[in-house]
Each structure stands twice: as C-alpha cells, then as structure tokens.
Amino acid sequence: MQNQSFVNEFVLLGLSQNTKVEKILFVVFLLIYLATIGGNMIIVATIIYSPSLLSSPMYFFLIFLSFLDACTSTVVTPKMILGFFYERKTISFEECMTQLFAIHFFTAVEVIVLSAMAYDRYVAICKPLHYSSIMSRTVCGALVGIAWAGGFLHSIIQIVFTLQLPFCGPNVIDHYMCDLFPLLKLACTDTHIFVILVFANSGSICIIIFSLLLVSYGVILFSLKAHSSEGRLKALSTCGSHITVVVLFFIPCILIYARPSSPFSFEKNTLIFANVLTPLLNPIVYTFRNKEMKNAIRKMWKRLSSF
What is the predicted pLDDT for the residue at 260? Predict the structure, then answer.
C-alpha cells in the first residue's frame, strides 16, 4: 500500500460541520444503531430458539439476512458516531481499505441471500409438491456458502481496483465513510476506466439482479390465482415483506453505483439510507408483517420471563 500511495490517512467531512447539529445527530444515530442491533439479534435469537421456524428454509435465510444487516450497520455507524465528537475526523489508509472491503463484502453477500430467499418463495408457491426435496438443508447450506464466496470475490475485486490508484495529494473526503467514488475523485490519475469497472462490478450487477427479482416475484404473484383465498393471503403477506426489503435494499445501490456522476450530498444521503436505516427497517418489516415471527417472539419472551 505504501508503494502505491503517499497518503497515510484521509479526512472525513462527515454529515455536518455544525457542532450543535452533530450533537443531535449523535443521539439520533446512536438510538438507530442500538435499535438495529437489538432488532436483528432478536430475530436471530427467536428463530434459533424456535424449532418450527429454524426448520423452514425461509427463516434459515432470514437468520443470515439479519446477521448481515447487523454487520453492515456496525461497519459504518460506530465510526460515524464517534466522529461527531471530533472536529477533525480522520481514518487511516488501512482502516479506509478495511471499511471499503467490509461494506462491499456484506452487501454482496446480502444480494445473494435475498436472491436465495426469492428462489425459496418461488419453489414454495409454484412447486409446493417438490418443495421439501428442492429446498433441502443441504441446498440451503450450499446457497449460503455461495453467498459468502460471491461476496468475498466481489470485495476482493473492488479492493484490487482501489489499491492500484495513486493517492499523492488531496486527502479530504466529503463523506462520512470510505467508498469507491469519493476515493476515485482523490486519485492522482485518470479514473475513467476505473469508473467503468466499478459500474460493471456493482451498478450493472445490482440492476440485473434487481430486475430478475422483480420478474420472479411477478411470476409468483401471477401464479397465486390458482391458490385458495387463504393461501393467497398468506403468500401475499410473505411476498410483500420480501418485496419491500428488496426494494429498500436495491434502489439505493442502483442510485449510487449506476449513477457515478451523482453529487456528494445525494450520495451521502442515499448511503445513509442504505447502510444505516435499511438494516433497521428490515427487522420491522419481518416482525410487524409476519404473524409467525410475532407469535414466536411472544413465546420466547414468556419463556425468558418465567426464569
């Protein structure tokens, strides 16, 4: 890294330079972070201690989705919160590269897990007689393994791109975290090729997978005509939660990585929604709209309160 760069640290401008505003933001984002970790860990604990849920592939994937949301929030939010106490917010070159790798790793894994959840719903609704044989525990485990491997490959490619860039002068990032496009603007070289590579590795993949997911859910909803009214309502409730999470996750990613010329203010606000708010909204969507989860949480709470 030292051979590639003369910059040892980057200065983050954060969300605001107003100390009064930063105090308010500290309280707001601290509460959001605590609620995010608490909400997602409640989902994980509820499924693990509910055998009926744990045996279902849908909830098996939901464990990993909640864990990934907690990890994504932890990569970004604590560093941002601590920055509110400092007038000069810095991050070392090594920390910056680690944060960049981690956020893209967990995000890429979540993309594949969301795709696996969509495939699970397709099999459950469109091929119910073959569901148990198709979505076996071995298949579910293999899909999760593919998700981790795919996330690692995606992040390695991003890091290799970034480490090829020379950072020899400006080190001020008008952002609250290290991300690809803010770093590209600081590089002391022509970055047009790198912008194309980032779009190919992030933007285009998000657009393609998001489009495929929408088509798959469209097929699922169309096939519900052949189901009973009770089965249709249950499937609509489950698919509605999944579609909500998919839209909340993919739209910000597409807006950022498919629009590399977007202004920093737009990018910061969009990434806050993607990395800070979406991990909080996911547990809300999956608990408030899911009777099985709400019943399981009540049972777990009664079990804990009885000790």
Answer: 57
- Residue 257 phi, psi (nearest 5): -90, -10
- Asked if residue 265 belongs to a domain, the reply is yes
Residues paired with residue 11 on neighbouring β-strands, in sequence order: 90, 172
Please state, in angstroms and as integers, the Cα–Cα distance from residue 251 to each residue in 71, 203, 270, 271, following that order: 20, 11, 9, 11
Q: Is the pTM of this model over 0.85?
A: yes
Q: Identify the pLDDT of residue 155.
A: 92
Angle between helices 137-163 and 57-83 (to 10 degrees): 30
Q: E-assigned strands of the chain?
A: 9-12, 89-92, 172-173
How many beta carbons lie within 10 A of that of residue 148, not counting itself? 15
Cα separation, 236 vs 150, whole angstroms: 30
Percent of the chain with pLDDT over 90: 34
CA distance 146 to 58: 17
Angstrom distance (rounded) from CA 203 to CA 253:
7
103 within domain boundaries: yes
Please report whether residue 297 resides in a domain: yes
Q: Tell me the pairing of strands 89-92 and 172-173.
A: unpaired
Interior CA angle at 95 toward 151 and 76, to 5°? 65
Q: How many domains is the chain partitioned into structurally? A: 1
Query: What is the Cα–Cα distance from 18 to 188, expressed in whole angstroms?
Result: 30
Q: Are 288 and 241 in contact (CB under 8 A)?
A: no
Rounded Cα distance between 164 and 141, Å, is 35
- pLDDT tens per residue, range 164-198: 888 887 888 888 888 888 888 888 888 888 888 87
Q: Residue 1 has what pLDDT?
A: 43
Q: Counting Cβ atoms within 10 Å, is residue 292 exposed (0-12), middle (13-18) or buried (19+)? A: middle
Residue 4 falls inside a structural domain: no
Domain with 178 in it: what CATH number?
1.20.1070.10
C-alpha–C-alpha distance, residues 43 and 11, integer Å: 37
